[in-house]
Amino acid sequence: MRVNSFYKYFTIACLILILTVAIPYFIKFNGGISNETAVWGAFGDYFGGILNPIFAIINIGILIYLTHLVHKIDSNRVKKELEIQKQIAIYGLKHDALKAFNNNLSKFQLELVKSNENSELNIILHRNDFYSLIETYTYLFPSIENDKKSALTEKMRELSKIAGDRFVGGNEFDIPNKLEPKLLEFIDLKIEFIKNIQNCILE
């Protein structure tokens, strides 16, 4: 629609310009149509001498305008492509973070119910890994409240302490009574935390 309007007004402007140049000529020279070649030649020189420079200037102006328009369109296209690439990269980082958090919390949960000699060390390692993941990826999920992160880290610290007591005095602790209630609370927090990350990715 805008292009059609431009052509319409441009055509009208050209006609007005031609008439503005032609009418004074015919008024000055009585408006008659001559049969002599020399008169037509003089008219052509007059007409071309005035209009050619004007149209040349107009052409330069149109060329500058079109060059600017093409540059603007191209710049906008590049900006959109860069924005799309940025969003794809951020989505990939968020997806990687989701996998890392999910794997870490699942391994932590699994080690809690094991009773081999490496479990206590693995629990501490997985817990520390989770802290590192929080520090690394927290900027990707600004909408996840700090209290949710704090609640989960605090629960992991609490579970680590309970699990660390399993071999104190050489006796395994009572998993159903001591660990299970806290473990269920941890699982609920874990599910909520992972769900929040998924929601952030889908935003």
UniProtKB/TrEMBL annotation:
Residues that span the membrane, as ranges: 7-27, 47-70
Protein origin, superkingdom: Bacteria
Keywords of the record: Membrane, Transmembrane, Transmembrane helix
Stated name of the protein: Uncharacterized protein
Species whose genome carries this gene: Lacinutrix neustonica
Lineage: Bacteria, Pseudomonadati, Bacteroidota, Flavobacteriia, Flavobacteriales
